[in-house]
Amino acid sequence: MARAAALKQEHVPAASKPTLDLFTKNVGFTPNMMATFAQSPIAFNAWAALLSSLSKALDVKTRDSIGLAVSEVNGCDYCLTVHSFTAEHMAKLPAEDIILARKGHASDPKRDAAVQLARKIIESRGHVTDADLQAVRDAGYTDANIMEIVALVAMYSLTNFFNNVFHPDKDFPAVAPAGSI
User: Fold this and answer.
1) Is 28 found in the same domain as 102?
2) Source organism's superkingdom (predicted)?
3) What pTM did the predictor assign?
4) Does residue 151 sit in helix, strand or coil?
5) Between residues 173 and 135, the one the model is more confident about
6) Are 54 and 155 in contact (CB under 8 A)?
7) pLDDT tens string 37-66
8) Average pLDDT over residues 88-116
9) Which domain holds residue 31?
10) Distances from the Cα of 157 to the Cαs of 32, 73, 161, in angstroms?
11) Cα–Cα distance, 122 to 144 (Å, whole number)
């Protein structure tokens, strides 16, 4: 059960409205997470700006795979439903790759290195080893790319924590619990 109400359109703060309207237009409906998050224009618009900037980082399959890996570690059921949906419909990842990403891996070797690093970052709270960094560099990522992976981990963690605190009602198709995949 939701711990904070998703706002109806007429109750959205004016400073959140343009951002929320853009998401609604792009997604085709207003996700409950966003309608809840919009209550704080400061937090909502800051997250939206970060999301917009990081949508240019890496490629969509890698971004969605990182989102799945991070959401799995953080136990965010809402984000797992969103990232599973976007991974399938936007990134065009096959079901097997979605499951691999939730487990911190990918079928593509380069993407696998990024997803493994993202999982290690979240599990170790950023205390990765020199070998972890070298492995992702050896896969073809630059230090700038590694910084983008760290930023993606932080951004996905922000929404994971938000959703774990407020429990917005799910509005994307349910996914199987991690124990059954």
Assistant:
1) no
2) Bacteria
3) 0.92
4) helix
5) 135
6) yes
7) 999 999 999 999 999 999 999 999 999 999
8) 95
9) 10-54
10) 18, 10, 6
11) 18
179 secondary structure, DSSP code: G
* Residue 113, in any domain of the structure: yes
* Tokens of residue 23, six digits: 């998401």
Residue whose tokens read 């059921």: 77
How far is 155 from 117, CA to CA, in rounded Å?
15
Residues 85 and 167 in one domain: yes
Inside any domain, residue 1: no
CA distance 147 to 68: 18
pLDDT grade for 178, boundaries at 50, 70 and 90: low
147-160 pLDDT, tens per residue? 999 999 999 999 99
Six-digit token string for 130? 């020199």
| Residue-level pLDDT at 179 | 62
Using an 8 Å Cβ cutoff, are 55 and 23 in contact? no
Q: Which residues contact 115 (CB under 8 A, 6 or more apart)?
A: 62, 65, 66, 69, 101, 104, 105, 106
* Claim to verify: residue 114 and residue 128 sit in the same structural domain: yes
The whole-angstrom separation of Cα 17 and Cα 95 is 35
